[in-house]
């Protein structure tokens, strides 16, 4: 298998007459942490959602783990299993306890036994710093804890790639650090991660590369020391001046 986790070629995405992604070419090597920054409405979420085909590309190809997600013959459900996604809004089953949230898809989608699923769930709860909270009702946890449960849930499916769409944007400021800490740990363990974030400091410290997108096009991509530390494009400089 190639060293690339994700290969995006000539990706265009339109919603009706509105073209939101205007030709994206991007290769993400295995183990890379890529942070995606850019103005609101620039196409960040759409780009991320095209990676696991939550949005179907209008044209172009998206290959994940050597599987062409855009090939009509591709088993999308199988391919999607290798991609974990964490949203701004957690999307937990509020009425279920934490353990049930973590075991449901493992059992239904992967066909794991209850015992196996619980073992995986408990290991991942520990990884996100929530050991012992398995019996808590999801809705009773803080936002930061819920987001860490959402990360543990995604990890419990053994993904090869993790997508994060503004995972800390809905959190009270004092809860952001714990979630970013879990993401740092994952990055250090070598997980391939595509992270849409406004946390420029996190991007500076954790990203291998930073991608600045504006108006559906990649404006600049490179190491944080370049894209954040010494941006070459005026649009990147203007954006950073607004968020830093
Ligand atoms: P970002 O995440 O960078 O803020 P998005 O990818 O969410 O941007 O959206 C880019 C543009 O695409 C926006 O103008 C948004 O309104 C539009 N858009 C996103 N999803 C849809 C959709 N399902 N239908 C129509 N327009 C959409
Ligand atoms: Mg978005």
TrEMBL record:
Which molecular function terms from Gene Ontology are attached?
Answer: ATP binding
- Pfam families reported in the protein's UniProt record: ABC_tran
Domain (ABC transporter): give its ranges: 6-240
- Where found, per UniProt? Cell membrane
Stored SMART domains? AAA
Please spell out the taxonomic lineage of the organism that makes this protein. Answer: Bacteria, Bacillati, Actinomycetota, Actinomycetes, Pseudonocardiales
Name assigned to this protein: Amino acid ABC transporter ATP-binding protein
Alphabetically ordered keywords of this record: Amino-acid transport, ATP-binding, Cell membrane, Membrane, Nucleotide-binding, Transport
Q: Which family does it belong to?
A: Belongs to the ABC transporter superfamily.
Q: What organism is the protein native to?
A: Pseudonocardia abyssalis
What kind of membrane protein is this, topologically?
Peripheral membrane protein
Q: Which InterPro entries match?
A: AAA+_ATPase, ABC_ATPase_HisP-typ, ABC_transporter-like_ATP-bd, ABC_transporter-like_CS, MetN_ABC_transporter-like
């Amino acid at each position: 298998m190639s060293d690339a986790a994700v290969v995006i070629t000539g990706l265009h995405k339109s919603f009706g007459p509105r073209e939101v992604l205007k030709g994206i070419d991007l290769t993400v090597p295995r183990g890379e942490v890529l942070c995606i920054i850019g103005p609101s409405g620039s196409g960040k979420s759409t780009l991320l959602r095209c990676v696991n085909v939550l949005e179907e590309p209008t044209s172009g190809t998206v290959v994940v783990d050597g599987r062409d997600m855009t090939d009509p013959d591709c088993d999308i459900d199988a391919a999607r299993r290798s991609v974990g996604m964490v949203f701004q809004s957690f999307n937990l089953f509020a009425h279920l306890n934490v353990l049930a949230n973590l075991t449901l898809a493992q059992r239904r989608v992967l066909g794991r036994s209850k015992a196996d699923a619980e073992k995986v769930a408990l290991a991942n709860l520990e990884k996100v710093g929530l050991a012992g909270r398995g019996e808590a009702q999801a809705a009773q946890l803080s936002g930061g804890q819920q987001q860490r449960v959402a990360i543990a849930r995604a990890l419990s499916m053994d993904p090869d790639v993790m997508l994060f769409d503004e995972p800390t944007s809905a959190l009270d400021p004092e809860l952001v650090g714990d979630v970013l800490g879990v993401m740092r740990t994952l990055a250090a363990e070598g997980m391939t991660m595509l992270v849409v974030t406004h946390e420029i400091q996190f991007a500076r410290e954790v990203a291998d590369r930073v991608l600045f997108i504006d108006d559906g096009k990649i404006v600049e991509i490179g190491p944080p020391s370049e894209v954040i530390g010494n941006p070459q494009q005026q649009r990147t400089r203007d954006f950073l001046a607004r968020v830093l």
